[in-house]
Write a structure and sequence with these properties.
The protein is mostly beta strands and about 120 residues long. It is built from two helices and eight strands.
Length: about 120
């Protein structure tokens, strides 16, 4: 049996931009992507702590060290600069494998989105 479990989580990052005139997706600082074990094109769920909105989209690589978290396209109507969000991805795995799996959970500085001491990564 396969089950879906949390694979990656960027916990409480701030939206830095909202670009309505883009095709879609979320642009994420490459340092944050690396820390959370995310890749370009990967499906993510994003939860907005400010207004309760939830979306699914895919990741675009942003400039390394920039702290960028930019919601593009229609999501720009639901996520505004300054909103605090949680970005999550999931993986399918065997039930027994899932018992031992440890997700990459990253707690960046919410003001800058830069990496700080992350003992859970």
């Amino acid at each position: 049996m396969l089950i879906q479990v949390i694979k990656s989580k960027l916990h409480r990052v701030s939206v830095t931009e909202a670009n309505l005139n883009y095709i879609g997706s979320v642009t994420i600082d490459e340092d944050l992507m690396d820390a959370a074990n995310l890749i370009a094109g990967e499906k993510v769920h994003i939860v907005n702590n400010n207004n309760g909105e939830r979306i699914e989209t895919y990741v675009i690589t942003g400039k390394r060290g920039s702290g960028v978290v930019c919601l593009n396209g229609a999501a720009a109507r639901k996520f505004l600069p300054g909103d605090v969000v949680i970005i999550m991805s999931y993986a399918l795995m065997d039930f027994e494998e899932a018992k031992q799996f440890r997700p990459a959970i990253v707690f960046p500085d919410t003001r800058t989105n830069l990496l700080v001491n992350n003992p859970n990564v």
